[in-house]
Fold this protein.
Amino acid sequence: MLLANEYVAEKEFKKAISVLKKLTRVNPDSVQAYFFIGTIEERYQNSPQRALTAYRDALSIEAGNIGVMSAMAQLYLNMGNFAKALEMYEDIVHFDPEDVTAQLKAALIYYELKDYDKAIGAFEDILAQNPDADKIR
């Protein structure tokens, strides 16, 4: 993992991915390696589909990993796939009902999709959990 970090620092992204893929062959349960591959593919290689594949691999090992799910949800959002992003944010809230960021992003997606009843309900839920959240009002 350290070598992959060094390659990223040197902007040698393909080498970093190669090292991480070797790591996953030795340790196929390395959520961190798959997550790092996804991050590199997304941020530095402009390969959202390969990033999604790596994120899915990570989630197949640890289904409730909020960090991976959040990255995947944001990637779907960046790709304009609101339905998939919403699905991911709903999953995050399922695993962590107090994740206000995921709740808020889900509410905003409901609004964007013109599902106003669900958007209002989601905002009301957020306010009920966080009565001091003046920015939401």
Remarks:
- DSSP finds eight helices and no strands in the chain.
- Residues 75 and 81 are 9 Å apart (CA to CA).
- The mean pLDDT is 93.
